[in-house]
């Protein structure tokens, strides 16, 4: 069965008190656990909860209850109620308990500061607030802006981490589709590796291209002349006698 009765636990209390149906039948109809229905019947669960008559409130017919009492295997069928069609899909800001409504400005401030990619509509759905309130905090015109400190709405219990992550992913996807990348100051829209690697390096102007290795002087060193090698024996050896001088001396003699 797709639909469940409104005020399910109160309806279960009434069925336990006023019918002889099994705990399983009541549990299946109200969307509860069978042990929870047994606890209702024993008075351990839902103590003080006033029963909600499903017949008087157009959720069940007397004939349906009678058929279920006669047959323990019979599954109760919720009565079709035209006025309730689409009620579960009604759109609007989420309900915020009174005890947490004072925390909404702090959570709005946190979202505006750390997730500027989120639209006012997304913030409104996350924490259950209105666009004028969000705009007042964005523009710092809120009456209590001096005393508002940014606090994570997940830590305050105003939304789930999965809901926040989903909203941020949608906002980033929309931003990327529009061809824009947020700055670091605006926060957290990280550029993918492919995008960062695709950025071209600055090119050298064509007027000075090819002069990368240009220098003012000749950088090629001149070869040095080899120094003569001397040893002690060649320096101190007496010169050899001249053979022709010896021949002339012999002729004179």
UniProtKB/TrEMBL annotation:
Residues 221-230, 243-253 have a biased composition (Acidic residues). It comes from the Bacteria. Residues 193-253 are annotated as: Disordered. It holds the Pfam family TrcR. InterPro entries: TrcR (IPR010421). This is Cytoplasmic protein. It comes from Nereida ignava. The lineage of its organism: Bacteria, Pseudomonadati, Pseudomonadota, Alphaproteobacteria, Rhodobacterales.
């Amino acid at each position: 069965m797709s639909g469940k009765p409104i005020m399910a636990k109160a309806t279960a209390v009434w069925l336990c008190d006023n019918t002889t149906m099994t705990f399983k039948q009541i549990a299946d109809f109200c969307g509860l656990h069978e042990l929870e229905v047994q606890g209702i019947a024993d008075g351990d669960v839902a103590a003080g909860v006033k029963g909600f008559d499903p017949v008087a409130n157009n959720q069940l017919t007397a004939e349906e209850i009678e058929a279920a009492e006669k047959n323990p295997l019979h599954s109760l069928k919720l009565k079709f109620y035209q006025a309730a069609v689409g009620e579960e899909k009604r759109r609007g800001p989420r309900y915020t308990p009174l005890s947490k409504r004072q925390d909404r400005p702090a959570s709005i401030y946190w979202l505006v500061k750390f997730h500027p990619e989120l639209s006012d509509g997304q913030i409104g759905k996350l924490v259950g607030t209105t666009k004028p309130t969000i705009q007042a905090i964005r523009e710092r015109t809120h009456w209590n802006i001096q005393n508002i400190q940014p606090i994570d709405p997940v830590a305050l219990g105003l939304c789930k981490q999965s809901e926040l992550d989903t909203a941020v992913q949608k906002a980033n996807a929309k931003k990327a589709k529009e061809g824009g990348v947020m700055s670091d100051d605006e926060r957290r829209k990280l550029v993918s590796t492919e995008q960062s690697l695709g950025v071209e390096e600055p090119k050298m102007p064509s007027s000075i291209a090819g002069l990368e290795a240009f220098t003012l002087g000749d950088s090629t060193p001149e070869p040095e002349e080899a120094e003569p090698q001397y040893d002690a024996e060649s320096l101190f050896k007496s010169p050899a006698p001249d053979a022709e001088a010896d021949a002339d001396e012999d002729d004179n003699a």
